[in-house]
Amino acid sequence: MINDPGLYTGDISFFKGREMTYYGRWTYKYEEAARQGADGIIIIHETEGAGYTYAVPRNSAISSRFYLHNNRNSKFLCRFSGWLSAQAADKLFTNCGLNVAKLRMEACKKGFKGFPLNMEISLTIRNSVKYNNSRNVAGILKGRKRPEECIVYTAHWDHFGIGEPENGDSIYNGAVDNGTSMAWALAIGKAFSQLKQKPDRSVILLFPTSEEQGLIGSIYYTENPVLPMKKTVACINNDLLLPIGRMKDIMITGYGQSELDDFVERAASAQGRYVINDPNSHTGMYFRSDHFAFAAFTFTPSY
Ligand SMILES: [Zn+2]
User: How far is the CA of 86 from the centre of ligand 1 (A)?
Assistant: First the structure.
């Protein structure tokens, strides 16, 4: 099932209450199933838990899926993985007297353990595999005092390409997600390069590829960084700017996850602005963009 029990119980002593933890994220579930030796994993989709409708996993399943070749995480993949709509899961469960709502209620109780459904499934999957290349794009401004240390600004350059048409248009341009953030990063790079005195640390602008496919470009970068990850002080990422004009609040996705909050708070108050927490932290946005590849690199050897 998607998400973690805290979402439904709201109990902040159990997981993190309504805020999603990484254990609620489908990527973690995929990895954990493989670590437990499962042949395959099927995640039951529910819109509240996923933070998006079934159209999202469905759309990514009907076009080709990208994987990073030879990354150290690839041994944490099952032989097959995918999603099932709650509706389809209900149909499947009919024979065992179960339904998704009932199962979710049980799974939210402390001490819940998995159990066999006493059903068998046999399936054949035909895959065609194609090798392809894509590029991360990066620029570096060498620091004056500590050039071996760096701060990385990231904004992914990819979007969804060509998909199912919406209002007769099948091209997904991605002007907001993520053209706006690329402009943000370029403006920051320009401002740094025009400083009379260059910054102490190096500044890297990184435009990762294939973010929408699962942070592929940024994971590759953390495994093949321009400057060592140990000397990478911070990653500041933007994944779409709201094109609704100037505002006073600065929303930090992943508020409370790093010391950067304090720096943002100070800079914001100097401009008469204030910082707010992510109002939708249950959707797990913190785990869904390129900064997370940098954060995960520091806490899990399997990632
Ligand atoms: Zn994006």
Answer: 26
Q: Are residues 97 and 141 in the same domain?
A: no
User: Ligand 1 centroid to 241 CA: how many Å?
Assistant: 10
Rounded Cα distance between 209 and 273, Å, is 32
Say how far apart CA 115 and CA 118 lie, in whole Å: 9
Q: What amino acid occupies position 253?
A: T
Q: Residue 15: which domain range?
A: 6-107
Q: How far is CA 109 from the centre of its chain?
A: 27
Distance 37 CA to ligand 1 centre (A): 32
pLDDT in tens, 255-289: 998 999 999 999 999 999 999 999 988 888 999 99
Instruction: Kindly give the distance from the C-alpha atom of residue 236 to the centroid of ligand 1, in angstroms, as a whole number.
Output: 14
Q: How far is the CA of 91 from the centre of ligand 1 (A)?
A: 34
Is residue 77 one of the residues assigned to a domain?
yes
Domains in the chain: how many in total? 2
Q: Which amino acid is at 268?
A: A
* Ion ligand 1: residues, CB < 5 A: 177-178, 239
